[in-house]
Amino acid sequence: MGKNTNQRLTQYLEITKRNNHNHPRRTQNYKPRRLPTTPQSNRKRQSKMTTHNITTHYEHGFWMINIPHLDGITQAETWEIIPQMAKEYIHLATNTPTEQIDINITEIKIGESTLISDALTARKQAQQAEQTSKTLTINALQLMKTNGLPLREIGKVLNISHQRASQLLKNHH
Predict the structure, then answer these.
(1) 3-class secondary structure, 99
(2) Backbone angle region of 103, left / alpha / beta, with phi > 0 → left and psi within -120 to 50 → alpha
(3) Are 154 and 145 in contact (CB under 8 A)?
(4) 173/171 Cα distance (integer angstroms)
(5) How far apart are CA 104 and CA 50, in angstroms?
(6) In this structure, what are the phi and psi dihedrals at residue 149, rounded to the nearest 5 degrees?
(7) Cβ proximity of 121 and 106 under 8 Å
(8) pTM
(9) CB 109 within 8 A of CB 55
(10) CA 117, 118, 122, 128 torsion-angle sign
């Protein structure tokens, strides 16, 4: 380093030292303020997802969102933003981070009709029944195949084509 650079560095250090020394909060015992730390057990508990049940009903061009356990209500203009609006309300009411909030819509109404909720419940039950049916069909296929029944016979018994029976067996071996 050149002479001028050393002089400027020395001046800078002296000014910095002088300014820090005269700073009202920078005394000998000065410690910067820090946010309180949470114990490790609290951190784990806070990162846990919480599920909140909500109900919705469409009224005068808006989806009204009822959050019963908080005795709260908010609204959304479109169906897609209902979870976002509910999460924001819950965040403000409980101080829970929105990333840790899960929304479960338990009822959907238009007027006094629960037809939408009923239709969605029926569809969910049908999907579950379809999955159960598929599992039972595969188990029955495997049982019949293990006992020596030919694919054509298995297909007739289960009311599916022998090609479909073969496909199911191959996919689940």
Answers:
(1) helix
(2) beta
(3) yes
(4) 6
(5) 10
(6) -70, 140
(7) no
(8) 0.50
(9) yes
(10) positive
What are the tens digits of pLDDT across the range 88-121?
999 999 999 999 999 999 988 888 888 888 888 8
**From residue 70, how far is each of 20, 54, 91, 94 by CA, in Å?**
50, 10, 11, 9
For tokens 């840790």, the residue is 100
Paired tokens of 3? 């002479």
DSSP string, 54-86: EEEEEETTEEEEEEGGGTEEEEESSGGGHHHHH
pLDDT, tens only, 115-124: 888 888 899 9
Question: Contact, 75 vs 85, CB < 8 A?
Answer: yes
- pLDDT one-digit tens code per residue, 21-70: 554 555 555 554 555 555 554 544 556 889 999 999 998 889 999 999 99
Order across the sheet with 101-110: list the strands: 72-76, 62-67, 50-59, 101-110
Hey, is 33 helix, strand or coil? coil
Counting beta carbons within 10 angstroms of the beta carbon of residue 72, is it exposed (0 to 12), middle (13 to 18) or buried (19 or more)? middle
User: Residue 95, by phi and psi: left (phi above 0), alpha (psi -120 to 50) or beta?
Assistant: left
Q: Which tokens go with 71? A: 């005795």
At position 160, the amino acid (one-letter code) is I
Structural tokens at position 153: 């016979």
Question: How many angstroms separate the CA atoms of 45 and 155, rounded?
Answer: 52
